[in-house]
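Hello Y.,

Per our agreement to keep a running log of every chain we model this quarter, I'm adding this entry. I've kept the format consistent with earlier entries: sequence first, then predicted structure.
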Amino acid sequence: MNSPDASVRLPTYFISHGGGPWPWLTDQMPGDWGPLTRSLEDIPRHLGTPPRAILMVSAHWETPEFTVQTHPNPPMLYDYGGFPEFTYQVQYPAPGAPDVAERVAELLGGAGFPVQRDGTRGFDHGVFAPLVVAYPDADVPVVQLSIKHSFDPAEHLAAGRAIAPLRDEGVLIVGSGFTYHNLRNFGPGAAVPSREFDAWLSAAMAAPSSERSRLLTEWEAAPSARAAHPREDHLIPLMVAVGAAEQEPADRYYHETTFMNHITSSSFRIGAAPASEQ
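Predicted structure for the entry above:
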């Protein structure tokens, strides 16, 4: 693995991470998983050189206060149900990065946020499912940062601002969620609300930076907002990714209208891709 160039400012990402252990089940789940797969495989190509570490802000870890994962070799957390038995034995053996975790805690604490540390937390599927596609060799250290129960958009944007220096330190910040997440409506009825909310979100992300942040704090006023996100756990990681690159333009680098046959979904990169500047 090549060493990251510390002089390069990394972009941030918000990825739609798929469902459950999908990379191991693409032949058994509905729809064409090719577009999502290719979007995740594109991340290393965007960057050109592997990052020093990846900080994943997963929709699947909620805590009262921001909490960082400090385990040097995080175990697996199979936080899904109803899948084949073998999917509860898959492995993504990426090392942790306790030094990066301490840096995250330092930056958040310096911005006035109470910060907790968790030395036992494993990788949830919002982390290991997309990363096994993007970095299948599991050779980049990974740290998780929780989202807060409050789901306060402004607070999570502020947390992103606080950890922005990591981008100049070789750490890739990734918000892992989904632009549409209504588990009770993943069939044909998802087509209209997912399309309407995705169109609004794409326009908001393309807006000037100051306007973008304001729109995101007011996301509940968007068309089909609560139909797309009855509970906004899968949207909130976006706020951290945006806050960490708040003054930089966003690129919708993944978009499809037939995810699992019916759903419109997108992923965004905020900030310039280093490989595109070489």
